[in-house]
Design a protein that fits this description.
Two copies of one chain form a homodimer. Chain A is of the alpha/beta class. Chain A has helices at 6-9, 15-25, 43-54, 67-80, 96-108, 124-131, 149-155, 178-190, 251-261, 267-279, 284-304, 329-340, 366-381; strands spanning 30-31, 91-94, 114-119, 135-140, 160-166, 194-198, 224-229, 242-245, 317-318, 342-343, 345-346, 358-361.
């Protein structure tokens, strides 16, 4: 038999999904593993989809998404993200944030291009580049998880096409400051790059931090793809609706690519997303307050267990080092699940610079968190 | 600014979509253009989605699709398509047939591989190969639109990885016979190839023709990807649910690829597809009878207008030549729309061997067909 795809063969299966499968097979396990909020998808979204069904929206949607939703998303970017230049023709509706990332690679890159990313980072960013035959260049984060600009300057070449940022960040919880965002934009301009800004966790902010969209800064809108989705803000990861804002000359490339490879996003579901985007999540403040308590609880417990962890200011993750107790985060994760049935993700999933780390998601009840940390404590005591 | 994606820049925007956009802007136009059935999506599907929503299926679905649906699809392939070897682990649920095609390329191909296809054919097949940096080799169909095996033998090389068939065919309406399917399978085995069998029009058969799935033949199940979807059978193109059966070693590659580039198919919508697959389309016989009448009417009118057309035995298209009246099908299509507001698709959209042809879809009411052909007659008279 002739060989299958090299790039896909050699990419790893998501260890998060593997963990999820193990978790589902176990009866008394607690998951601090998956990146999924634990509140219910708001009724406005559910009812929007029901309305779409009642109106029999079952025929091909436009490849770029339904016009009403593109308009609502443009309005969201203008008002919430201060991206004043955005018009509906800059918007594309996607099969979740994941497809938005893939479309960015599809439209912008050619084989051999170099892609830069601060590491650790969201796991898709480590595999998608190889699917597009581009080369990923990892920039190890500073110890506080901020971007290391010196390393960035060192590693940029004439082949560099795209810089990726994801702030608030999965898996570190790091939130870039306004100053950092400005420096990123300056770097992108100086080296003639494109910038992918993944802002899916934009609502999950603590300690008074803000999410600054680089595409709100003047004079760079022809270089930035801003990615977002309803998944995290509305706890609707399974509806698979994301969206992006891009320069007007790039949207038609994404449109063509999606016409032939996906042919659009489920039509009735787009009417649910429309209600969400138009009205926002009515309970967001309450949710954030709640998540902030969990975050603080995690940090307190990590400190007590002497698991060193840079302060997370956003998203719903923290990423401590386990090197005090064990060589690798993967090992820690495997043994913790085996002995105490607590699921956390080993650092290897998030790049080459987090081997000694684990990702903890606190998108679960306080009660679960308390139980999980008790078990982690037992586990550490038994080492 | 650095260059965008070559492959995507140089692929054409779907002329069908362009036509569709023109059509939407016009008030009294008639479309014989788009590949979308004209009956309502059955209520069992709509209610299945509603049930999915009521059960709050809004969290990440498994990347391969929900287990119940994979089981129902496996059962469908075993009983309806006589693919007795198929188990749920051979099944993947996809974002329509389009994503199933893309995933096949993602999992099977490496840059430089050659892909063979009989031409004219479904338009995605002409663009997706370049997105995966593979080379498409077109095999011009015989005049009756059957596969030209001599040409196939002539053009196969050691680099050929994949042969694509789509029967019943869009755009020609051609249905491969059992004998042809057997020869295709023999060819695939002889040259150590993979075979993509796109069977989305399997229910649209006339003149007693049958759809023979190549993967029902013994000893080739490790080489065949069988693609289907709910789009055409259930008039549900906009729900974006397709599915495929593949060798068990290929499914994990597709799973990985989709984890990072799409992260699954809308969760509640899969429960609608489940009802459709489990129960079938209760009105299919009636629909086919109806479509057959339209088909016969088209053929009669084409004959009267002296537009030569090979007999279509399947799908809901016919593809006559316009060379008696005009140099190219694209020109014919453009002028017909301009002068008489009838939308048909010029042959160029379907490959390099259909320049003098147009595709007519008869997935519209008899009344519309009558009106459209009156206008076509006027148009031809005015030439």
């Amino acid at each position: 038999m002739k060989p299958l795809s090299d790039a896909v063969l050699h990419s790893k299966k998501s260890s998060i999904r593997k963990l999820f499968e193990l978790f589902l097979k176990s009866t008394d396990a607690i998951s601090l593993g998956i990146g999924q909020p634990d509140f219910l998808t708001p009724d406005i979204i559910m009812n929007g989809i029901r309305k779409g069904l009642d109106n029999r929206k079952t025929m091909y949607p436009p490849a770029l998404g339904i016009q009403e939703l593109r308009e609502a998303v443009a309005e969201k970017f203008r008002t919430e993200n201060k991206m004043e230049w955005v018009q509906p023709e800059n918007i594309m509706i996607t099969n979740g944030g994941s497809q938005a990332i893939a479309l960015t690679f599809a439209a912008l890159t050619n084989p051999g291009d170099e892609i830069m990313i601060n590491s650790p980072n969201f796991l898709s960013y480590f595999y998608i580049p190889s699917y597009y035959h581009t080369n990923l260049v990892e920039i190890p984060r500073n110890t506080d998880y901020s971007l290391n600009f010196q390393e960035l300057e060192k590693k940029v070449t004439s082949k560099t096409k795209l810089l990726i940022i994801n702030s608030p960040n999965n898996p570190t919880g790091y939130v870039m400051t306004r100053d950092e965002i400005e420096k990123v934009v300056g770097f992108v301009l100086e080296h003639d790059l494109y910038l992918l800004s993944d802002e899916v966790y934009e609502k999950y902010l603590y300690n008074g931090r803000k999410c600054h969209s680089p595409a709100s800064l003047g004079g760079v809108e022809d270089r930035i793809i801003t990615i977002n989705s309803i998944s995290k803000t509305f706890s609707a990861t399974g509806l698979r609706v994301g969206f992006l804002a891009a320069p007007a000359n790039i949207i038609p490339l994404m449109e063509k690519y999606t016409q032939y490879t996906a042919a659009g996003v489920s039509h009735p579901v787009q009417y649910g997303a429309l209600e969400g985007i138009k009205h926002g999540n009515p309970k967001m403040d309450e949710i954030i307050q709640n998540y902030d308590e969990r975050r603080k609880y995690c940090l307190k417990r990590l400190q007590e267990l002497e698991l060193e962890c840079a302060m997370p200011h956003g998203a719903f993750y923290c990423m401590p080092s386990v090197k005090k107790y064990m060589y690798s985060g993967d090992q820690f994760s495997e043994q913790l699940f085996e002995k105490q049935k607590v699921a956390v993700v080993g650092g290897d999933a998030f790049g080459s610079y987090s081997e000694d780390k684990i990702r903890i998601s606190y998108a679960t009840t306080k009660e679960n968190l308390e139980k999980a940390f008790e078990r982690i404590e037992q586990f550490i005591k038994g080492l």
